[in-house]
Structure to design on (240 residues):
């Protein structure tokens, strides 16, 4: 398992650079989706006996489905392939990720309820969420805004429950740290994706700002799922 980050992280750095220097090109999205599939394969290489581990493992299926709609499909509609389906796949991708995060939360919440974690760690996360909603709400409306609010609340809950795992005890501290890091990186990446998707950065700051944020997202989001993979195969917390 130790060799996987050493191999994977340079590939993520390459993805980040490609998002900056070749934005909107089909091969960049295809390359990213190949990295996602590689993570899924790694996650399912291990035979996990604890049901909570298996539940987290299933979240990788929805990662693959979500990025099929949000990454691969847009890539195939980009130059030089230009294959367009004519339907908006964004809601389907978001729904897949909502299921993935729901699986994570369903594992984390029962565990942290046993140690009664403090509420205060969620406050800065909520502050960031409220700030983002205040910025993007003028450019969204109706059902879309409602969906963003619901999805954002789920993200805040995922981040808080993930952070709270560090209180589960010394015997599983490494696992807890990896899962907490995973939750924070995934949520941070999704906050940035939402901002990049709905806030008119290119109109205000120019197109390069969008590409720069895309590059940053690559360095945050995929390592979050890599941390989750590592957390799956570490010693599992007792009593979960």
């Amino acid at each position: 398992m130790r060799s996987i980050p050493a191999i994977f992280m340079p590939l993520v750095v390459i993805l980040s650079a490609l998002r900056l220097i070749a934005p909107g090109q089909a091969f960049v999205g295809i390359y990213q989706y190949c990295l996602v599939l590689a993570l899924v394969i790694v996650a399912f290489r291990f035979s996990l006996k604890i049901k909570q581990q298996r539940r987290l493992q299933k979240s990788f299926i929805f990662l693959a489905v979500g990025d099929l709609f949000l990454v691969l499909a847009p890539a195939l509609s980009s130059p030089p392939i230009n294959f367009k389906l004519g339907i908006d796949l964004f809601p389907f991708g978001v729904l897949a990720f909502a299921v993935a995060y729901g699986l994570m939360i369903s594992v984390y919440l029962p565990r942290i309820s046993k140690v009664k974690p403090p509420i205060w760690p969620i406050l800065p996360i909520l502050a960031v969420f409220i700030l983002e909603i205040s910025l993007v709400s003028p450019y969204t409306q109706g059902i879309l805004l409602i969906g963003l609010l619901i999805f954002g609340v789920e993200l805040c809950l995922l981040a808080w429950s993930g952070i709270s795992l560090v209180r589960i005890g010394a015997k599983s501290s490494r696992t807890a740290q990896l899962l907490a890091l995973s939750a924070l990186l995934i949520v941070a990446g999704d906050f940035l994706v939402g901002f990049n998707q709905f806030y008119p950065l290119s109109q205000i700051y120019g197109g390069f700002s969008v590409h720069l944020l895309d590059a940053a997202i690559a360095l945050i989001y995929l390592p979050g799922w890599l941390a989750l993979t590592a957390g799956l195969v570490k010693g599992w917390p007792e009593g979960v």
